[in-house]
Write a structure and sequence with these properties.
mainly beta
Length: about 625
């Protein structure tokens, strides 16, 4: 997945700017094909010690993937669980952690829900997305609370300078009466660029419940926008907006889902960001200021089995963040022929939450973070990174976190060693803390310590590459729901996660590529029981073949998940196979099709919830 791709957004401390360092120093950097920004200093991917995967827009488009969750199913160390039909709650876990331990960013804006602390991926379509970056392991020193097991960073497309408007329109139809219509426009002049996109996606869906026949439909409207402008040669401004309106049918739940034609959930999400980037001293000092805002409104109808009645439910939440960071770039050619960058930052965040159907008051809390990040290159083959952060929480004890990573490249052998070690933290969610029935105001933040180490080997002029990484993580004060008190509580003891991630890619011919991965995850509670919804064994195999002088392309994606439980109920193993192909009729028109779950596998991702059988889709894409 990482491959030879462009990456420019894993920015230190989670404060993302859309413009890198400018001026003479930045121009001297030899970025090559592959760039990762682990801070503000762009570096080649081989120089990063953290464990990561990147999914590019080219891969999303070549496999005609419409949802981010589907793309993440093929990433090592990541597990995805959807509770039923398209649009239903979709949770993503990394390295055996909880979904609330994964920090999700969209153009640098925290997207994780305030109420539960986790992000629901059911609303996240791929329209307008340029790349998906997945950092594995504790990253709180960079990104603050909730980045305990990893970070998923979604970066939308930007425009092209000195370019006339370029339009892309797509229409897709398929089984379950599904229809997807999307449009994108990108362009720019000498000193500014822009990108806008939108999509409407509808499907009748499937029956979420294992019994009955009533289908649960989903409708999603997604709008994106991004603008970058040069106010002067040294001062840049950027802005991004994203809006999602999703309406999903649901089924009643007692001991298992059961048909109900009346239940629904509506979610409206808004994300906005405005940033300034200022470069001084020929790019040796770069400072950034950024304001980020997000809001979420949820409304729905639920069924209460204990009263045999229907109840309205919902929540209103918003979050405002103000950040500043400054980075100094400097060289010490007489000392280890080294290049350095040092970043200092301060951030302030305020968030609020209210339930419009309860008598609970509006809840608010603030967080202030102080952090620094360092990267260094020594003798052209040793690369170091270190960061530390101190978070001041309004309602919880202050927390300090750190991360250290290193990579070493053996010249001429294609061998790279990489390793990282760090700590993470996650504060209790509003629901866990303040809910009138189940909340516990005495909860403590969760804490984790983790490390990983791996070796990457390239052969045959980089036509074959394999990476093997071992990871180990320890979680304390894990928040659980107590079956004794029927409230949330901090669990005593240590939850242990460890495993191995193996990924390999091969370019067998100029037109045939193969990618494969395998992940072993041993995730245990303090009592030694296997954690729910985290497969011990998972693997993927992807083949991609171009033919007819590059006008046509076909792919096969297969994935396997084995040894899974859900609330201590064993779930069957399963294998999914997806296939697809496209043909470029001319330089403007492409026709494509895909089949998901080719062999009509019957399986469950979440106990008691149906999954889709074999489905098919065809589409037409036009560029002009």
């Amino acid at each position: 997945m990482s491959g030879k791709v462009g990456v420019a957004s894993l920015v230190a401390l989670g404060m993302i700017g859309s413009v890198s360092a400018t001026g003479a120093y930045a121009e001297d950097l030899d970025l090559g094909e592959v760039v990762i920004s682990a801070g503000l200093n762009p570096v080649d991917e081989e120089k990063v010690g953290r464990s990561y995967t990147v999914v590019t827009s080219q891969e999303l488009e070549s496999r005609h993937v419409n949802s981010v969750a589907e793309a993440l199913r093929l990433v090592p160390g990541v597990s995805v669980g959807r509770s039923g039909s398209t649009g239903a709650l979709t949770e993503v876990r990394i390295r055996g952690g909880e979904s609330r331990h994964v920090l999700v960013l969209i153009d640098g804006i925290e997207a994780s829900a305030i109420a539960l602390g986790a992000y629901d991926f059911s609303s996240l379509e791929t329209v307008g997305i340029d790349r998906i970056e997945v950092l594995r392991g504790p990253q709180s020193a960079l990104y603050g609370a909730h980045a305990m097991s990893g970070v998923i960073n979604i970066i939308t497309k930007k425009g092209e300078r000195n370019s006339k408007p370029k339009f892309t329109v797509k229409q897709e139809v398929g089984t379950e009466l599904s229809s997807l219509t999307s449009a994108e426009v990108r362009g720019g002049q000498e000193r500014f660029d822009y990108a806008f996109s939108g999509a409407f996606h509808y499907t009748d869906g499937i029956n979420t419940a294992l019994t009955g026949s009533e289908k649960d439909a989903n409708r999603n409207i997604t709008l994106n926008g991004k603008v970058n402008a040069d106010l002067t040669d040294d001062l840049k401004v950027d802005a991004s907006l994203r809006y999602v309106d999703k309406n999903s049918d649901a089924d009643a739940y007692t001991t298992a889902p059961s048909d109900d034609p009346y239940l629904y959930a509506n979610t409206q999400e808004f994300f906005g960001s405005l940033g300034l980037t200022h470069s001084l001293w020929d790019g040796h000092f770069v400072q950034k200021a950024r304001a980020r805002y997000s809001s979420s409104t949820q409304r729905g109808l639920d069924y209460a089995s204990w009263t045999n009645s229907y109840d309205k439910y919902g929540s209103d939440s918003d979050k405002l963040s103000l950040d500043y960071q400054g980075t100094v770039f400097f060289d010490t050619p007489s000392l280890a022929n080294a290049k350095h960058s040092l970043t200092g930052a301060v951030s302030w965040q305020t968030e609020s939450y209210t339930d419009p159907y309860s008598t609970d008051p509006e809840r608010k809390r603030d967080t202030t973070g102080l952090a620094f990040d360092y990267t260094g290159e020594f003798w052209d083959n040793l690369f170091l990174g270190a960061g530390a952060r101190y978070d001041i929480f309004e309602d919880f004890k202050d927390t300090a976190t750190y991360n250290v990573n290193a990579a070493y490249v053996f010249e001429g052998t294609g061998t790279r060693l990489h390793s990282s070690v760090g700590t993470g933290t996650a504060i209790p969610s509003y629901y866990q803390t303040y809910n009138a029935v189940y909340g516990n105001a005495n909860l403590s933040p969760e804490k984790t310590f983790g490390w990983d180490a791996g070796i990457e080997q390239s052969l045959f002029n980089d036509r074959f590459k394999v990476d093997v990484t071992y990871f180990n993580q320890r979680l304390t004060d894990e928040i659980i729901f107590s079956s004794v008190t029927y409230k949330y509580a901090n669990e005593t003891g240590v939850s242990k996660r460890q495993g191995v991630e193996i990924s390999a890619s091969a370019k067998l011919t100029d037109n045939l590529t193969v990618d494969a991965s395998y992940t072993y995850t041993d995730s245990k509670t303090p009592s030694g029981a296997q954690e729910s919804r985290r497969p011990k064994h998972s693997g993927t195999l992807k083949l991609s073949q171009a033919f007819l002088d590059g006008k046509a392309h076909a792919f096969v994606d297969s994935s396997i998940f084995a040894d899974r439980t859900d609330t201590y109920v064993a779930l069957d193993d399963y294998i999914l196979v997806n296939v697809g192909a496209d043909y470029q009729i001319n330089d403007k028109i492409q026709v494509y099709g895909r089949i998901q779950n080719l062999f009509d596998e019957n399986y469950q991702e979440v106990a008691g919830y149906n999954t889709a059988g074999i489905t098919g889709y065809v589409g037409l894409k036009a560029d002009f």
